[in-house]
């Protein structure tokens, strides 16, 4: 059985790629942000996940406004990045795991999520930046990925509740996958930011703190925000937080916040990093009854 070992939420600002390419991780501007990943690196090198399911939004590299699925799941053997025009190097390709992708797609459709399935899919900075933050250095990433793209661009967007339920469905599907894999789920983007219009540069620290606290302890309470209300509080691109809702929904067990970092700003964005451990409740009970049987 696949095991969901934890979840990571992280910003995906493209200029992070430029900072990495130029080795600026210890510059005063960047240090408070990059140091927020030390704890994530420790955890990843100890836990060694095999697979990352990445909830993210495409910004026009693979989908554009002419055809934009609400939810799309990758089912490719490999995912490439291309030049997105941010002036950052094109990232290495990332390995997929088609058999697991198809299992998730089967279970999602059975669960009435009528997703778009993609056997050919480019992944943009919303996947590549988080991967390069989680596994820095030139080596190939030590995980295979299942990318799950959520529309945060062309309204109407799926609600926070819908994204949480999508995550729950994927969590249940992972637990019925019959290969023994360790899975980390990742939600990218956010927190508050707005890149254009009258409120360009908008950041809302109080609301970000509320979102992070609720995500850790009572994620359902966030479902009371409609998408327009969420945009009002968090900015037009702050709504990328729906990717974090999906990540949190996929944590099916007892969830423990292990770490968070919050820093304003990175480029135009309030940058947040959160690490959650997922303790599978059933497995814990099983091992406890096995202990009792032995004693
Ligand atoms: C920025 C933030 C984003 O989420 C994004 O997709 C692109 C740019 C920024 O703050 O610069
Ligand atoms: Fe973005």
How would you describe this structure in keywords?
single chain, 295 residues, eight-stranded mixed beta sheet, binds fe (iii) ion, 10 strands, binds 3,4-dihydroxybenzoic acid
Detailed description of the structure:
The protein has 295 residues and is α/β, with parallel strands linked by helices. The mean pLDDT is 95. A hairpin with a 2-residue loop joins β9 and β10. The chain is built from ten helices and ten strands. The two termini are 26 Å apart. α4 (98-110) crosses α6 (160-175) and α6 (160-175) runs parallel beside α9. The protein has helices spanning 15-21, 31-34, 38-47, 98-110, 125-134, 160-175, 205-217, 227-234, 241-249, 281-294; strands at residues 3-10, 51-56, 71-74, 78-79, 94-95, 116-118, 144-150, 182-188, 254-266, 269-279. Helix content is 35%, strand content 21%. Residues 12-15, 59, 189, 193, 195, 237, 240, 267-269 line the site of 3,4-dihydroxybenzoic acid. The site of 3,4-dihydroxybenzoic acid (DHB) has 13 residues, from loops.
